[in-house]
Design a protein that fits this description.
The chain has 75 residues and is of the alpha+beta class. 41% of the residues lie in helices and 20% in strands.
Length: 75
């Protein structure tokens, strides 16, 4: 992930917008402090799909419908 100053973003906005459209993520700083992160709009969906695929390899699904005979106190 690239880190740039806000002044550099202003000077080269289209360059960075094109980079984000191509999948890059950019952290924007002002006086050394992070003020924004620019990411492609669908990156969260891609990350979620990737995490679910990883989880699918490890998860074990058992019978979650059949009662187990335990009484639960809801109070």
């Amino acid at each position: 992930m690239e880190t740039i100053a806000i002044s550099e973003l202003r000077a080269n906005l289209m360059k960075f917008i094109n980079a984000v459209q191509n999948g890059a993520s950019i952290i924007v700083t002002s006086r050394g402090k992070v003020v924004a992160k620019i990411v492609p709009p669908d990156i969260s969906k891609k990350n979620a799909e990737k995490k679910l695929k990883e989880l699918r390899k490890k998860a074990k699904l058992k019978d979650v419908i059949t009662p187990i005979g335990e009484n639960w106190n809801v109070n």
